[in-house]
Predict the structure of DUF1573 domain-containing protein.
Amino acid sequence: MIRQMMAACLVLASTGMLSASEMETWFSERVKDFGTVPKGPVLTHYFRITNPTNQPIQIGGVRVSCGCVSASATQNTIPPGQSAAILAQMDTRRYSRPVTIFVTFLAPRMEEVTLQVMANTRLDLVMNPEVLTFSQMTHGREAQARVRVSVYGDPAFRILKATSESTLLSVEAKAAAGQSSETAFDVVATASAQVPVGRWFADVNLETTTMGKIRVPVSIEVLPSLSAAPSNLTLGSMSMGQSTEQRVILKGPEPFKVLQITGVDDQVKVTKSGDEARPVQVLTISVTPKKSGLIDRTIRIETDLKGDKVVEIPVRAEVSPNP
């Protein structure tokens, strides 16, 4: 399943007395085998941890058994019912054997839990690029990324099957023409239009004839199909009666109309550049404070686009009274 950095995990029932084995179960997994990988790239993995107790978890430190791996907690205090992660990054150029990660807990009680990362690094295996990257993919539209997998000095190498751990990611491998002593395959991944907005990570697994299972990391960044720039309006300090204007650019995947604007009043107004459909719409936000205090509201703009048809723009200003 595609996973988002620090995705929420299922909250377990609260426990009373804790044992080391119970603390280990807070992690969604404790061992990560990256499989067969080229020697060169930096591999990343998140060990997710969820707090199932009724008190905060405090992580005192994270250390590793080898300098080829770095590890850290995404946050040191985890409130009840919430999740965090231990981020592990392996430098495959320096890696030679399985590495242990030691996570020290200070609360609910002092304890240490061990995690482990491992890989089978190969000098004769090359992936170009090193990651299947979907950069700034538009929500609602499918996209493709590809990587060339090359093996040198092994004419018997074949990719038998290419699979993804996510139903939103399909993948196939095709033989490609290689240079002398090179056996090459092109791995093509297609990300579904249904991948949610956000940054996501996944794995593609390649079953091969001579190298076992090869892992290809996947990175996906999905942007809303409707975007606003700037996405928020922070005006700082203003005086009563002072006026300011800010142009906001709305961009869509196709020509669209602005149907409705809410969140405005006599202090905050929005003017459209026109009523016709365009792929880019320009709005002018005017702010004229009538009273002192905080202006803090959200302008909601609805369009006739399908899918991502609404964008919200926070507006904030601190208004001081006139001298």
